[in-house]
Design goal:
globular, alpha+beta, 20-stranded antiparallel beta sheet
């Protein structure tokens, strides 16, 4: 029975994976700012959460499966994506066909779009239940709002009959409330119990010790109980804090207190020592996590994390209370940037101390080794991390990836790190120390070689060339044979120390800062993704996926050219794979135009919003 049970779970998994394709859909080209006019209690009562127990560990649901799938399969992108040669080369198509054939042979009907929509219908949900005493695995409910009751009943009976086989398993039917509970008994101790029932157009399958959960679902349907997840105050709070409009296609919810208990139960099982004896404590600082995904002029997901601040130490609590700020580094970021990521509420000293405290608390022996390594590094470099580095770092840091220069011998990424500075003199002193330390150590290599009679080594010395540009002093390291294309350097621009992989990127950021060239805030692509970014925020991420894929294509072409120079069958095969499979895949992914992520620390916890824009 175990293998056939796997087929049922496999059908659900395949459907879920297929629905993930909704991420490539497009209803419009611009980002929404959606209204918050959803009746939370009504929505919860109408979802499959109304049949899930109040005490679930985790709950995940996908809605509007049929309409989402219809839009996906009708899109030009999907047609191009599914016709890629890579699926033939990796045998994906043949593997799916074998799965369909095996399912038909085992259960008597084909897995087609119609079948899946009849089985899964308008909503599919998975609920993880608490472990029963003495159990070795969690209990799980699969819930589906299905097509017509006649069709789903026919399908279920076929599945049950084929699972049963030639007396392989016994089936018990017990009337309960307005319907019945069907129990498929396991053949061996290794097989789980299966329970299911049909409530109107909803099918509920329980795996494990799930009879009580199935009976509770029937009581909820019959109005004999209201102890459902839909009535759970924490669940309703998650829906309320993450609501983005009326077009939700997915929701998820996790109760970390119950997850901690579940992990503790699993850690007590034989062979699970790696989980540790007090796993629940690691989850104790969090209460719930949940979110909502909507499909409306793009794909947007909002996640809410609720903390247990009374279980946090002072340093952790202070970090959760970090105030949002306007990302000042945006003024330096050029228009057309591929990737920009900024954290606007840093407290590096608190983060450092918290890391050390957690390290010492979790594994003192390993902590000692790491701290010894840090001490040795500080001694060799002649610096103190706390005094020479953390002391001058301000409350903002960002990373930027501008483009890839492909005109030279090999692709060269153009990227930079921007750090807000509280004390420029201290920052400059640290940078000077680093250069002096590197030069001293490389000089020592040459001296040691002479003393030991080893082959002569010429110690490489860092020589920082200085250049003035629009009032900023640039210090650049020109590497042999690469010139300014890859001349790592730095400059203080406004309140930021900008460390860049090349001089050109440094100058572009200075142009943006001076107002002599457009900045990222003027970029139409950023403006679309930026609609999810608050004026004051804690962390933001922006990705121009179309340009990132262009960079990937350029790098792939360079690799393919390099492979073509290899006089071997392997080199030829690699070149063909890149040209025929990888590059077409990257081109198809250009349908994902931009990605924006905003993280905001609020009085209720952390709110994170993801937005993805698609081409029309």
């Amino acid at each position: 029975m175990k293998n056939k049970l796997g087929l049922i779970v496999g059908v659900i998994a395949v459907a879920a994976v297929a629905v993930v394709g909704f991420q490539f859909l497009s209803k419009s080209g611009s980002s929404p700012r959606l209204s918050y006019n959803v009746d939370v209690k009504k929505e919860a009562a109408e979802s499959l959460a109304r049949y899930a127990p109040n005490d679930v560990v985790a709950f995940y649901s996908l809605k509007q499966l049929e309409s989402v799938w219809n839009e996906l399969r009708g899109s030009e992108f999907w047609k191009e994506f599914t016709s890629l040669k890579i699926w033939q080369d990796t045998n994906v198509q043949s593997s799916l066909q074998r799965f369909q054939d095996e399912f038909k042979n085992s259960l008597g009907f084909e897995v087609g779009e119609g079948t899946l929509m009849d089985l899964l219908g308008k909503e599919l949900a998975i609920a993880v239940l608490p472990m029963s005493p003495g159990a070795t695995t969690p209990n799980v409910l699969f819930l589906a709002q299905v097509g017509t009751k006649t069709k789903i009943t026919e399908r279920i009976f076929k599945i049950v009959e084929n699972l049963r086989g030639e007396g392989e398993s016994d089936i018990e039917r017990a009337p309960y409330g307005s319907t019945e509970v069907v129990h498929i008994l396991p053949n061996t101790d290794a097989d789980p119990d299966l329970y299911y029932t049909v409530l109107g157009n909803s099918f509920i399958l329980g795996i494990g010790d799930a009879r009580t959960a199935i009976e509770n679902a029937i009581d909820l349907a019959d109005g004999k109980s209201d102890n459902s997840l839909a009535k759970n105050e924490r669940f309703q709070s998650i829906i309320s804090s993450t609501t983005l409009g009326n077009n939700a296609i997915g929701r998820f919810y996790m109760d970390f207190e119950k997850i901690g208990s579940l992990m503790n139960a699993l850690s007590s099982l034989p062979g699970a020592g790696a989980l540790g004896p007090n796993v629940a404590s690691a989850f104790g600082v969090l209460q719930t996590l949940g979110g909502t995904t909507v499909l409306d002029k793009g794909l947007m997901t909002r996640i809410s994390v609720t903390p247990n601040k009374d279980k946090m130490d002072d340093q952790t609590r202070a970090m959760w209370d970090s105030k949002p700020a306007t990302p000042a580094s945006l003024a330096l970021i050029p228009e057309g940037t591929y990737l920009y990521s900024a954290s606007c509420s840093l407290d590096v000293n608190a983060m450092w101390q918290l890391w050390l405290n957690n390290l010492n608390g979790q594994n003192p022996q390993q902590a000692q080794l790491i701290q010894t390594g840090i001490s040795n590094f500080e001694q060799s470099m002649g610096i103190s991390i706390e005094k020479d580095v953390l002391a001058w770092i301000g409350n903002e840091a960002s990373y930027v990836f501008n483009e890839v220069a492909t005109g030279g011998l090999f692709p060269i990424p153009k990227m930079a790190l921007l750090v807000k500075v509280k004390d420029k003199k201290a920052a400059q002193k640290f940078l000077d120390k680093v250069v002096a330390s590197v030069n001293q150590q490389t000089a020592n290599l040459g001296q040691n070689a002479q003393q030991t009679g080893a082959p002569a080594i010429t110690g490489f010395q860092l020589q920082m060339a200085e250049e003035s540009y629009k009032g900023s002093d640039l210090k650049l390291l020109e590497l042999p044979f690469l010139g300014r294309a890859l001349a790592p350097g730095y400059a203080f621009v406004g309140d930021f120390l900008v460390i860049s992989s090349n001089a050109e990127s440094l100058k572009k950021m200075i142009d943006s800062y001076k107002g002599d060239a457009p900045s990222l805030v003027d970029d139409p692509n950023f403006q679309k993704a930026g609609k999810v970014i608050e004026r004051k925020t804690n962390q933001i991420v922006y990705v121009n996926m179309s340009k990132m894929m262009d960079a990937g294509i350029e790098i792939s072409n360079w690799i393919a050219t390099f492979q073509a120079l290899q006089p071997s069958d392997e080199g030829q095969a690699n070149q063909e794979f890149i040209q025929d499979s990888l590059i077409p895949l990257l081109k198809s992914l250009k349908a994902i135009k931009t990605i924006g992520v905003n993280t905001l620390y609020t009085s209720n916890g952390i709110e994170q919003t993801f937005f993805t824009e698609f081409s029309k």
